[in-house]
Inverse folding.
């Protein structure tokens, strides 16, 4: 098994991530987070929110609706251009994203360019392709009491999309926040939420799914200061990734996106790549989006997006720097960095060396023997005390002590606390460390 398969297997076995709609045979490109996955994901997202919003004076949070007026996607260009190059194998009818199966072509690859690469079908190995068609990745739905089959024309008027990115929910609230909070520049709006992309071929576990979490900031700056602000935002991303969620800096690589490959509105983009088990993949993006979005919204809505400087009276449209990170991408990066196989007592051990601030549980408490009521009672007292102090504490009295340690290692619990007969005498417990497997005697009052 590859390391990615090991992680997928651990996620399912220990209740971090299950395939979506598993009971009905799954539903491609969807994943469900189980009890421990929810805990890890929530801690990770809270860490992001605290670092980028709560601890700062220049940041505001928003939480916009997933369903937005379709004019949003006209203004942003998604209706026209949020499309992937779809190509179909005429032999086996499999469909692929042309730019993902051919070497050295971009998303804007033409049929001629694609055919010139002489790519063979990954499924049947033949080379017999249809033309490249543009496939819009937005999920379409209908709003209101319309039966689409009854009245096509009425149905078309009631079209809405599941948002393909969270960013537009931020941009469309820029004016609301400016008019209610009068923030000084630079200031940022942050949002966490779901976005939906009808990926042609979802794959790589949770890396390329059809429903994904995003954590995005639109940081509004004076146009002439964008380069300085870009550098500040850039170094903050490293601080978050390396210090707050503990990714190894040597596994993060910046890729300066060349002009030809950048989105047309961006004057500078850096992709932050991460060494995932199956290769380098994008973890997050950092883009200077100029005033592209606010100007589009001003044109589409007819409302002014001007910002008036309180001191100088100057009026202008701010420019924007956007750090954007995928929730599942960060989640998998954290698991990949934490997943370790080593040897303990001559046997193979799987351990998640999660940072303490992200581990689903800080402590596991158990009684050495589960059929000795005085031990169990004492262990329950310790459990209750730790739970009210730290919150994230779990109880485990399954199997023998060795099996409990293995289980807690696999879910990343940093410390296991065991109550034994000595505890009844001297109020001390055994504390076993996840990473070193060392055991020390500690007074309960010192936990
Ligand atoms: Zn084929």
């Amino acid at each position: 098994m590859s390391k990615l398969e090991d992680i997928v297997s651990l996620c399912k076995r220990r209740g971090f991530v299950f395939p979506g709609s598993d009971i009905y045979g799954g539903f491609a490109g969807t994943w469900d987070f189980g009890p421990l996955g929810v805990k890890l994901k929530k801690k990770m997202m809270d860490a992001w929110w605290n670092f980028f919003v709560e601890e700062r004076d220049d940041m505001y949070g928003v939480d916009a609706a997933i369903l937005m007026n379709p004019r949003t996607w006209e203004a942003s260009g998604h209706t026209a251009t949020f499309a992937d190059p779809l190509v179909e194998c005429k032999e086996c009818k499999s469909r692929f994203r042309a730019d993902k199966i051919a070497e050295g072509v971009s998303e804007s690859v033409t049929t001629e360019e694609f055919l010139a690469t002489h790519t063979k079908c990954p499924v049947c190995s033949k080379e017999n392709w249809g033309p490249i068609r543009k496939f819009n990745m937005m999920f379409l739905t209908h709003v209101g009491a319309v039966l689409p089959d009854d009245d096509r024309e009425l149905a078309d008027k009631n079209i809405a999309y599941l948002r393909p990115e969270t960013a537009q929910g931020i941009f469309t609230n820029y004016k609301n926040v400016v008019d209610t909070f009068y923030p000084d520049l630079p200031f940022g709006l942050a949002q966490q939420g779901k976005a939906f992309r009808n990926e042609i071929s979802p794959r790589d576990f949770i890396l390329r799914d059809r429903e994904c979490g995003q954590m995005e900031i639109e940081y509004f700056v004076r146009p002439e200061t964008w380069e300085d602000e870009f550098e500040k935002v850039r170094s903050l991303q490293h601080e978050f990734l390396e210090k707050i969620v503990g990714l190894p800096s040597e596994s993060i690589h910046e890729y300066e996106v060349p002009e030809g490959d950048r989105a047309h509105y961006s004057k500078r983009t850096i992709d932050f790549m991460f060494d995932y088990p199956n290769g380098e993949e994008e973890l997050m993006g950092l883009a200077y989006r100029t005033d592209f979005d606010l100007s589009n919204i001003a044109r589409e809505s007819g409302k002014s997006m001007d910002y008036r400087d309180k001191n100088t009276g100057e009026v202008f449209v701010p420019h924007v720097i956007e750090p954007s990170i995928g929730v599942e991408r960060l989640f998998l990066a954290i698991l990949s960095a934490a997943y370790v196989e080593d040897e303990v007592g001559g046997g193979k051990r799987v351990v998640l060396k999660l940072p303490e601030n992200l581990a689903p549980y800080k402590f596991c408490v158990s009684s050495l023997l589960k059929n000795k009521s005085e031990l169990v009672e004492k262990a329950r007292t310790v459990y209750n005390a730790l739970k009210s102090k730290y919150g994230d504490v779990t109880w485990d009295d399954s199997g023998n002590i060795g099996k409990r340690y293995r289980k807690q290692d696999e879910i990343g619990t940093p410390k296991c606390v065991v109550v034994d007969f000595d505890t009844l005498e001297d109020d001390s417990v055994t504390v076993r460390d996840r990473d070193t497997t060392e055991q020390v005697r500690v007074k309960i009052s010192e936990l």
Remarks:
- The domain at 361-446 is CATH 3.40.50.800 (Rossmann fold).
